[in-house]
Amino acid sequence: MRCAIDNVALFTGSDWVPDACAHIEGSKIVYAGPRNQAPVFDPADRCIDGKGGVLMPGLVNAHTHLSMTLLRGIGSDQVLQDWLEKDVWPAEERLTPAFAKVGAELGLLEQIRFGVTAFADQYFYMDAVADAVMQSGARALLTRGLIAFGDKGERLAENVALFQQYHGAAEGRIRVGIGTHGEYTNTDESIRAHVEAAWELGAMIHVHIAETRAEAEGCKSRRNGRTVVRYLADMGLLDIPTLAAHCVWVDDADIDLLAEKKVAVAHNPVSNLKLASGVMPLPRMLERGIQVSLGTDGAASNNNLNLWEEAKLTGILHKGVSGDPTLITPSQVLAMATVNGARAMGFEDVGMLLPGWRADMILLEAGLPHRVPCVDPAADLVYSAQGADVRMTMVDGHVLYLDGEYLTLDKERIVAEAKQASDVMIYGR
């Protein structure tokens, strides 16, 4: 398949080209640059008129629980532990593979509509989620959430089987890692088993770290005064390529250790604020050179999967907390929302629109009132753009969504089935 996208303002991930086009052959970009310098690309199987809109790398949601779309809005306005114990965990007892799949499909509809081309997911029945991802055309890092309590090793066995069946599937669009849920939901023995499995498989680890004050303080009492970061480092977990979600309650020594171990951190500001978990020390992490990406967390604690909201909040939250408007630039936020997330998930040729890179890109509509005038293109994307501005979502050269039409998923079926599944899980009916 050869696709030509013409008449766009191009953001490559590093440079801006006001009058540009892009050529895609198969899954790869062969040209992205000025229209007046473009090579002949004829014939093309598909031609898309950008109508002056912005063509940019697809967004990357670096931490979510996709099937929790079925629990959207459940138990609002509670602290995390009460929310989990009183509402989420009882509802999750009714989760089935079929429900996990339709919940994932619902999340994929939402993400694809809002320009998310890749995501990192940790939840249950992940083989069903993998099937949904394969059908949708999206890109993903999948891990089975591993909680030790009530487990006799079968959950890790599920994660290993997931790796063996799906890692590298869908022409490389799917990667699989080990999903250590967190320090407070695991034992020394279970974490050692996760580390051993990751080394044997050559898999990365996706883990929650220090999301709440209670988790951070509890770890010190459980682990002989050690912080969550120090404990996981002592267990050898951080010696494996690691994607760490949240990292809210970390001190300077923890940040130094995260930097030393080259841990990738997923910042989830909306969920952290909604659950009153706190504010991650992003400026200090950036000063130490930590690779930070953005995540929505699950729809049950957000309550959506709109990464544009995370981007804007990241751009303004840390300014407000610190009183320093120079701390985080729009260009830094855009990198967090795109290429940083892709690299954190292990995709090395995703997240920029450059020749030879994967054709994961989105097209934003031009001329919308809330983005006129456009004085600063980077600031326009971070502070003004909305998820609904997305006209097209493409992954690996395949168009998944264009001008209101889903090309790989059946929206009507998914929405109807998701409503039924949600009723069963939340209300038991």
Which features characterize this protein?
429 residues, Urease, subunit C, domain 1, TIM Barrel, 2 domains, 9-stranded mixed beta sheet, 5-stranded parallel beta sheet, globular
What can you tell me about this protein's structure?
Strands 1, 2, 3, 4, 5, 15, 16, 17 and 18 form a nine-stranded mixed beta sheet that branches. It is globular and about 65 Å long. The protein has 429 residues and is of the alpha/beta class. The chain has two domains: 2-57 and 351-405, Urease, subunit C, domain 1; 59-344, Metal-dependent hydrolases (TIM Barrel, Alpha-Beta Barrel), CATH 3.20.20. Strand 12 (242-246), helix 9 and strand 13 form a beta-alpha-beta unit. The chain has helices at 80-92, 97-113, 126-136, 154-166, 169-172, 188-201, 213-222, 228-234, 252-260, 269-274, 282-287, 307-322, 330-337, 339-344, 377-384, 411-427; strands at residues 2-11, 16-25, 28-34, 46-49, 54-57, 59-64, 116-123, 139-146, 174-176, 179-180, 205-209, 242-246, 264-267, 292-294, 361-364, 390-395, 398-402, 405-406.
The gist of it:
The protein has 2 domains: 2-57 and 351-405, Urease, subunit C, domain 1 (Roll), CATH 2.30.40.10; 59-344, Alpha-Beta Barrel (TIM Barrel). It is built from 16 helices and 18 strands. It has helices at residues 80-92, 97-113, 126-136, 154-166, 169-172, 188-201, 213-222, 228-234, 252-260, 269-274, 282-287, 307-322, 330-337, 339-344, 377-384, 411-427, and strands spanning 2-11, 16-25, 28-34, 46-49, 54-57, 59-64, 116-123, 139-146, 174-176, 179-180, 205-209, 242-246, 264-267, 292-294, 361-364, 390-395, 398-402, 405-406.
